[in-house]
Amino acid sequence: MSALGWSSTTDEVLAERDLTGLTVFITGANSGLGQETARAMAAKGAHVVMAGRDQAKLDAAVAAIRASLPEASLETIICDLGNLAQLRACGAEARARLAKIDLLINNAGVMAPPLSRTADGFEMQLGTNHFGHFALTAELLPLIEAGSAKRIVNLSSRGHHFAPVNLEDPHYEARAYDPWESYGHSKTANILFTVGLEARLAGRGIHAYAVHPGGIQTNLGRHMTEEMIAALMARVTSSDSGFAWKTIPQGAATSCWAATAPEIEGKGGVYCEDCHVAEVDDVSSTGGVRSYALDPATADKLWALSEELTGARYA
Asked: What is the reported pTM?
């Protein structure tokens, strides 16, 4: 196989992997990157638990995968990342139904909606993309500990370049809302969560990886107006003259790589892009991870705030 990189697909990443016997739990698995990750891992023998808010959409995703993989081992579970009570119910159901989770892929997310709140009053992007996954991962931790692979993959984005996390006013209660700044907060939080997980769970053999999938046209951008799309494209193309969209199989490739690559076994707490671990870079607009997203002190502060707001504990 040639070296993996920007254009690699899920099937290329997993070509030499045998995932038979592994249980994979994927949030946001009803469409886009989550559905493709589920398909690719099921094709290599994994049992995949597809999590999402809408049973009909989950059923359609299962049917789509089974159209090409009739023997795919799939099941679904309702998971609403914007509702802490529902997340606790999801966790209880998962612990009752599953014996283990080998790979947890926190894939779901929202991008640039108008100012809105979760059921618990959190700003929607930080509440869904970070706080929801923080609470869910705590619920699923006993199953991850029972697994063998013991990896957690958190979908972040180069959008973390937009802004560090704001711990003083995380829910835009005292300042004007900016959808892209908020998105940046949440994507930085995904990386800081990865750092926090690694610090707390590496001793138990559990390792965490943050992932930038690349620029992909999925329903993640469903909230964007034409003006927002034009502004975003102007921003990315002005800073990256070589910008190109990835296909969905290319976009999901780094998630599959972070979940399975032997070369990063035991080396979590990192940010990955284009099927490699990214370098720390506080200047480039076309790659790398900002140092503020890997700062252990900020990760600890975000962890404390996350425990306070969600009530979740990593015992």
From this structure: 0.93
